[in-house]
Amino acid sequence: MERLQKVIANAGIASRRKAEELITNGRVTVNGKTVREQGIKVTGSDKVEVNGVPLSKEEHRYFVLYKPRGVLSASSDDKKRKVVTDYFDMIPERVYPVGRLDYDTSGLIVLTNDGDFANILMHPKYKVEKTYVARVKGIPTRETIKQLQDGVRIDGRKTAKARAHFMSGDKGKDKAIVELTIHEGRNHQVRKMFEAVGHPVQKLKREQYGMLVLGNLAPGEWRELSVHEVKQMYALATTGKK
């Protein structure tokens, strides 16, 4: 038996959180009866319908997209702006982004229709690392880099320990390139961390998520993950080993 919201997510209808909203709003029936209770469990023999349409289990799909700047990390937008799922119109399964990258941030984002996979990548307890490369204003000192590594206070609380590496600097243009690896997923965290140490971000790109990298992808291009990569990500999140 599995929780109803998980069954809906695994069918590719919606993320688990959205599935919970569908249940609360009375848009889900089990064996012909409307269900609004969260956490109810169903079996493979139960008939589950969402908006009157029976569920059919989709094959799980996993993708890495090089998100360009100026694209929303969402499945839709009421202002008709471009979203990451626009790049997957030819895919029959409904995939959705795992977590978010800011509108003005480019780089690696994962899309899938596997709710369990998405959950382990996003859940704080699994501490999956994400690596960013930032162009910042000014030239950070060694002390500043140490601050980023030890954690800085943003939104009233200190960030977890991170890895920070000064890559290059241009005193004439008063800018530098810094690599930062974090495992938290707080709102606008990387930008806020650099702002907190006095070096506002001018340009930001996510280079790596767990063991996944962009490779030779260009902005707007994507590739499907191999079975081995998916297993590696599960292992990395749950055991800390690739």
TrEMBL record:
SMART domains: S4. GO terms for molecular function: lyase activity; RNA binding; rRNA pseudouridine synthase activity. GO terms for cellular component: cytosol. Its EC number is 5.4.99.-. Keywords: Isomerase, Lyase, RNA-binding. InterPro entries: PsdUridine_s_RsuA/RluB/E/F_cat, PsdUridine_synth_cat_dom_sf, PsdUridine_synth_RsuA/RluA, PsdUridine_synth_RsuA/RluB/E/F, PsdUridine_synth_RsuA/RluB_CS, RsuA_PseudoU_synthase, S4_RNA-bd, S4_RNA-bd_sf. It holds the Pfam family PseudoU_synth_2. NCBIfam families: pseudouridine synthase (TIGR00093). Belongs to the pseudouridine synthase RsuA family. This is Pseudouridine synthase.
